[in-house]
Each structure stands twice: as C-alpha cells, then as structure tokens.
C-alpha cells in the first residue's frame, strides 16, 4: 500500500496543484515522496470549496481530515491513499499534527462568503495555509528535525498567497467571494457590488496594484531569508522563481483584472525551477 499511496498522492497533486507538483521535481527519493504527500493533502483540502454545494459538506470533509490526523477517525483512514501517505510522512518525520490541524481550521474560512477583512487577517490566513507548508517541507529536508526557517517560510507564504489570489481574482470574485484584504479595496473607494459585477475602476486598479507591491515586498524579503539558509533546505522554496515570474506577468498584463491571469508553459517553469535549484547548491 505504501508505494501505491505515494504514487497516488503524486498523481493527485499533479492534477490538483500543478505548480507545487512541478516544484517537487527538484527533490529525489523519500524526501520527494514526503513533500508530495504533504502537498497532495493540501491540494485536497484547498479544493473542498470547489467540490461542495454548501458549507455543511465542506465542514464534514474538514472534520474527516481532522479526525484522521487526530487518530479518532472510525473508518478505514488508510484506505484513502493520500491520507495513508500523509500519515506515514507525519510519523516518519515527526511532523506535529497540531500544525496541520491549524491549517484545516484556517481553511474553514474558504467555505463561507465573508470577505477577507484586512491585511493582518490575510497574513494570518496565509501563514497557516501556505507558510506552514514551506516550513514543513523544509523540516522534511532537515530529516524531520525542527529548524528555524520562519522568515523564509513566512514571507514566501504571504507572497505566494497574494500572487495566487491576484491571479484568481476574476474567478473568485465571480463566485461572490473576496479573498484579498477588503480593507485595501475599501480604502480605494471600491464597492463589493462592483467587484462581484466585474466592474473595472481606477480604485480597483489602484487597490490591486498596492496588493501586488505588497507581494513583491514579501517576495524580496523571502529571497533574502532563503539565501541565508543551509543549502540542503533551499529546495523546499523552489517555487520562488515561478512566483516571481507570475507576478511579473501580472504586472505587465494590460487586460482586465477579471480576465484569466497570464502564465508560462510547464517546460519554462521546470527550467526556472532547475536553474534556481542548481544555483542554490
């Protein structure tokens, strides 16, 4: 079951979170399997909102994962290959279940239509849902030993979340949701109804520009912190050049902010990942 579970986790990650899947290609052996299982778990949780018709079944799915991690699930958890792979990883790498439980709790926000209130709330959300993954991936590369990679994981997690939600702005707003800090839009005179209706305005462009600048600042801080880490830990942050390029493409985009975000083909991303990893050695 073990080998099959990790193979299934890789397939699930490739289908559910292409960029994180590509980032695992710079890893090898058990480390790659472990990080892949972690990311596959995250991909499953992150996609819950898209798979349910209302918050209630989403809460049920989150509770299933919570019970699985807490050891209180009464069904056969190991029959779920992603869960089986994840539990093997948490056991072999001494990953604290509390960290993953906090990720699940933060993801409850996704199930509802309340707007993200402000920058502090967004940074807290990004810390629990994205920075956590970078921290745990680095821990896996450190043979399960706790380490101090807080600045690198923290800043890259916020940058990653900002860039991801800027890229998904049109799709998410069409669902009647605001996942970026509402306070930034409000300060620029933007109304909720304008966002949901797909209405462009100077205030909207200004707000998105400010959020893009915020992402660039966090990305720069992350790159400085990553450069100071031991070489064996840096592959945990291999998505850095892909995120930087996605932000550059967003800033160059002259179309509507509600249009699908521009991106690069996989082969270019793989080249960036490989070059960045090679330079870090």
Could you report the average pLDDT, rounded to the nearest whole number?
Answer: 93
Which CATH class of the largest domain?
Mainly Alpha
Distance between the termini: 34 Å
Largest sheet: none
CATH topology of the largest domain: Farnesyl Diphosphate Synthase
Strand content: under 5%
What is the overall silhouette? Answer: globular
* Global Rg: 19 Å
Q: What is the structural class?
A: mainly alpha
Annotation field: number of helices: 15
Order of helices and strands: HHHHHHHHHHHHHHH
Instruction: Tell me the quaternary state.
Output: single chain
Structure description:
It is a single chain. This protein is mostly helical. The protein folds into two domains: 96 residues, no CATH class; 169 residues, Farnesyl Diphosphate Synthase, CATH 1.10.600. The protein is built from 15 helices and no strands. Helix 8 packs across helix 9 and helix 9 packs antiparallel against helix 13. The longest helix has 26 residues. It starts with a helix and ends with a helix. The model has no long low-confidence stretch (mean pLDDT 93).
